[in-house]
Design a protein that fits this description.
Layout (H helix, E strand, L loop, with lengths): L1 H5 L51 E5 L8 H14 L4 E5 L5 H4 L12 H6 L8 E3 L3 E3 L8 H5 L8 H6 L8 E5 L6 H9 L2 E7 L2 H20 L6 E9 L4 H14 L8 E2 L3 H7 L4 H4 L4 H22 L1
Parallel strand pairs: 1-5, 1-6, 2-4, 2-5, 6-7, 7-8
Antiparallel strand pairs: 3-4
Length: 311
């Protein structure tokens, strides 16, 4: 069908080539790309950490060019499910709409310091983290002006990456909720991340957004962050009763194979009701199928991470 020709095939990341002794390399290797005493020791100086030296948490951006595909829902509920499994989790609201912040019962309009201040004024990210169901770095309406403010700064694409140095050793997973665009805020998320999870609504327009996202990731890999890659694709708002939704799943699996998680996030009003109560669906309806779906997804995400570590 026409859509099949529009979607790229994501290539698996090449395995790193071991740096063997050239004398022992295979024939085809060329084709592969006095101390002076002092009266007393000086006090030890603690060097300022850099992004490269910081312990590496799993930093995952949840992104899709199209809005309304359950990025915020997936960020929060996946984070809560990972915490249920004993992981230390931070979620970051990088969307000026502040829906992730609101989903935990906070008013973005009443927040004095937020991710805007972290990115633009370079305050410590720990100053804007609130402990709720999971730790959340909150957003405010000010974040809407972040892209304009950042555009005049040197190293604007690395503002979030530098901010995370402070907390990388405190968490096992850092999940970043991005805005429905591929602007400077989303670029910051890609530069800071080692993986991207793409929530995809099971319909044509959402699938088409994968093309722009992969093009943007290719640019980021080439110029800013060679380690970032698509870690997985989550089919959301799935209704197995419709032929269109089933066809969308078939196209995803044909083009992206094992990148498509087996968990299907089905349509249910529970995902809309939970934020009204300021909670995740796992807290709002802990024994329901909506909560179980994100528990299943969390296990898949952990299994995938373990498989990559073992490879």
């Amino acid at each position: 069908m026409a859509l099949s020709r529009l979607l790229p095939r994501l290539q698996p990341r090449p395995e790193p080539v071991p740096e063997d002794d050239p004398a022992e390399a295979p024939a085809a290797a060329e084709d592969m790309p006095r101390l002076q005493a002092v009266p007393a020791p000086a006090p030890a100086q603690t060097p300022t950490p850099s992004p490269e030296d910081a312990p590496m948490a799993n930093v995952i951006a949840l992104a899709n060019q199209k809005g309304g595909v359950a990025k915020t829902t997936t960020t929060l509920n996946l984070g809560v499910a990972l915490r249920e499994l004993g992981r230390r989790v931070l979620v970051i609201d990088l969307d000026p709409q502040g829906n992730l912040t609101m989903s935990q019962g906070m008013n973005p309009d009443a927040i004095e310091r937020s991710m805007f201040d972290v990115l633009v004024h370079r305050i410590p990210i720990s100053d804007v983290i609130k402990p709720v169901e999971v730790d959340i770095a909150v957003a405010s309406i000010d974040l809407a002006g972040a892209e304009l403010a950042l555009s005049a700064l040197i190293g604007r694409e690395r503002a979030l990456d530098k901010a995370l140095v402070e907390v990388r050793d405190r968490y096992d997973w850092i999940l970043i909720d991005t805005p429905p665009s591929l602007g400077l805020l989303t670029i910051n998320a890609f530069v800071a991340a080692n993986g991207v999870i793409v929530p995809v609504q099971c319909e044509y327009l959402s699938l088409r957004g994968l093309v722009q996202l992969e093009n943007t990731l290719a640019m980021v890999r080439e110029n800013l962050n060679p380690r970032v890659h698509v870690q997985g694709i989550v089919p959301t708002m799935y209704d197995g009763r419709t032929l269109h939704a089933r066809e969308a799943i078939e196209i995803l699996e044909e083009h992206f194979g094992d990148l498509v998680y087996g968990t299907r996030i089905r349509k249910t009003v529970r995902y809309a009701e939970a934020p009204v109560k300021g909670s995740s669906v796992l807290k709002y309806d802990p024994s329901g199928p909506a909560a179980q779906a994100y528990r299943d997804l969390a296990k898949e995400v952990l299994d995938g991470a373990q498989a990559r570590d073992d490879a």
